[in-house]
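ok so for the tutorial part 2 we go from a plain amino acid sequence to predicted structure tokens. step 1 is just haveing the sequence, like this:
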Amino acid sequence: MTTEVRVPTLGESVTEATVATWFKQPGDSVAVDEMLCELETDKVTVEVPSPTAGTLGEIVAGEGQTVGVDALLATITEGEAAAPAPAKDSSAKSDEPAPAADSGAGEEVKVMVPSLGESVSEATVSTWFKKEGDSVAQDEMLCELETDKVSVEVPAPASGTLTKIVAAEGTTVDASAQLAVITSGDAPAAAPAADKDSESAPAQATDDGGRDVEDAPSAKKAMAEAGINRDQVQGSGRDGRVMKEDVAKAKASASQAPQPGAAAPTPRAPVPAEDAGREERVKMTRLRQTIARRLKDAQNTAAMLTTYNEVDMSATMDLRKEYKDLFEKKHGVRLGFMSFFTKACCHALREVPEVNAEVDGTEIVYKKFVHMGIATGTPTGLVVPVIRDADAMSFAEIEKAIAEKGKRARDGKLSMAEMQGGTFTISNGGVYGSLMSSPILNPPQSGILGMHKIQERPVVVNGEIVIRPMMYLALSYDHRIVDGKGAVTFLVRVKEALEDPRRLLMDL
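step 2 — the prediction. this is what the tokens look like for a chain of 508 residues:
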């Protein structure tokens, strides 16, 4: 029976892709969900898994070919048609002393990607704690996977010998991919064959200046057409592979290069010999890369400006102190400051709707609802869970939602849907002791409020110097659609609501 391998869905508004790399060749045996090839679009790189087990037949779309959605890429012959693969192995056995993998008493156990959490479909293999040939005990940690949200440790499903690592460090795998093979029992003899294979691999990867990563064919073609050297391009694909868009960026950078006599960027200075051993170079996690990219995009896209004010927290603190025990007894959740700030922001956003809007091309999209993002620190980085329709919630509902989302964020169980769609964000740096800061926008939002440490300071009230618990507030906003007047008005309304919470009840 023949199964067709077709181009998968490529994402919104993406109608075509370029075949970048084939990982298998006609005649090769393939397993279910084993990666066959990699497609490259203007936005992302898409790996195509095998829909069935069998033998790869004809490759219809070769490397460098542009294909549309649902186009035929290759065919796979299922069932007994996969028999040529064992024959190929048996012929290899006559030349190499590797039959121990088959003749050993052990049974091969596949190491698969464990559950990654809700809505997480792929991960990157960050670290292998074992290497091929090592003995492993059941439940001993083999490797660590990294997703956009959490790190996942992969334990050994059985005791034995790690005979094959299928997904090396830096490889992106999907939720059902195979990571390695363990031969249980007394089968460590298979390891030398694996070592021999791994030793021969680098020799096959020296056609590109000694590098072991093959660049996308479309990228090679673009470099040749533009006359750009490979060393001038920073690869963004898997394992540093150069993609077509990387060449476009390098070409744009070259066209904007400083003219002779202009100041050139200063390269990183060589590390002194005495300091060479005191540095540590660590690859950024996927979550940290996502955070860095989004924050930099916000700086590059929005016309960001920050305005400041300060608020006397006495009234809010007194009200909280008076009712917190009754509140917790009735609603089963503690009364914190975040519900007051959320309510105050929702109140102010109704008066200054442009702070709750976003830019879409040449249009402004005004939101008639408030999906409040609450920036939350986790062991792996900053995430922003969204409280939907916060403007329609009570204090208790807001506190419960914040507590539940915060716990899920720290446990790494937030879904992508729970971190999307926010219209405004609150960031509380005060929990870490920050006295004043300028928060960065969370695109495509046009406003973010920064809370800070409550600190007793001398202030003048009715002509007298008194000590009050004060907090600095910072509103960063997109000046493209929010004018200074609107930003200041918003911050003043938040200040007024916190200094006299009764205004929230009276809608003033």
